Amino acid sequence: MPAAAGALIVFTVLTLTVRAASHALSFDWRTAVPLISVLAAAVGVMAGNYFRGNPFPWEPDGKWWHWAWWAIGVAFATEAIARIPGVPLNVGYLFRGTAAGVIAAFVTPPEWQKEALWWVPLMAVSLAAVWAVVDAVGRCGPGGSTTAALAVVAGGASVVLIHNTSPGFTDISVCLFTALMTLAVAAWVTGTDCGAAGAVAVVPIILLLAMGRALVDSKIPASSFYLVAAAPLTLSFFLLPSAKDFCTRPTATPTKILFVLVPVLIAAYRATNAAPLVFATEAEKW
Membrane: is it a keyword of this entry (predicted)? Predict the structure, then answer.
């Protein structure tokens, strides 16, 4: 798929370039891979958007949800800056928190804001909290395990969104899934850390679910959207002092996937039961 190809090409080219430069400049090239993974994921999603007919237009034409594409770009740019080698950890979290507030101010559905003023701060806090948790988990166990877990969450979002009759948002979720899974495999093959791509992925996942919920009046229960959006928070288990050492074990990957898979499967089951897909027969098409 275009998203996977775009992510893999960028990851490979930049990693080889940085590795070659490290010999001349005497630095550890692996410290740049988290930043490279963010750039690769961003290119993968952009490539997917382009080849799927631009579900998100580059130039907003007055619809509030068109700003989500730029909001996702802000998230990727913020994560890239925070992952520049040498940027202090606390400064990175400050950048992410600020970006979460800006994104929430522009992309929180207007209908929700009319319903209650606390939706914007709630969206900002939700984005910042989930973003911070996934980032921390990824740092505890560098590699591809956290990114693989977030790929599963993105896949779950695509299931809920397709049953919500949101094909454009579904396409972007699938693109995110393939890009993240590609980077997870790349991390395992190269022995590097692509957790940053998984951390920033929470932003487009939550935004896509929020927009799907706000724009389409479907029978899918709200809990399906909330369960997928909150699924990454199950990874906070790995931040417990007694579980931190587990992050570096070979079984960490299937365990992380299992943790996020439970709420994702519940959400998918409820969505499929509430709004099953209907495939037209040849006779019905005519």
Answer: yes
